[in-house]
Design brief:
- By secondary structure, the chain is of the alpha/beta class.
- It has 4 helices and 4 strands, in the order E-H-E-H-E-H-E-H.
- It has a 4-stranded parallel sheet, with no helix packed on it.
- The termini are far apart.
Length: 97
């Protein structure tokens, strides 16, 4: 199953609530407005999904704190083969923590 939410202007709660309810293997959240709070909320839904294979989060205004939360839970996603974080606001601190 795939979930494509490209360019819908979802903020943190909308996109993550949909993803958590459906539990697909591919999340396409490109070009939304998830921001740091959305990254944190998405990380909570990833805690319950070990089947995800593809996570596309480009152009979502993710920042260091949202990326830190995501990284903590992405380690549980054993089947993850593709992670797209292009065009976000992740600095050295978010990448290295």
């Amino acid at each position: 199953m795939e979930l494509d939410l490209y360019n819908n202007l979802f903020v943190s709660d909308g996109g993550t609530a949909i993803a958590a309810a459906l539990g697909p293997r591919m999340y396409r959240f490109r070009s939304n407005l998830l921001g740091s709070s959305g990254g944190t909320a998405l990380s909570r839904s990833l805690q319950q999904s070990n089947s995800i294979q593809n996570l596309q989060l480009s152009k979502n205004l993710l920042k260091n704190d949202g990326m830190r939360a995501l990284c903590m839970d992405l380690g549980r996603c054993r089947n993850l083969t593709n992670l797209d974080l292009l065009v976000n606001e992740i600095g050295d601190a978010g990448a290295l923590d």
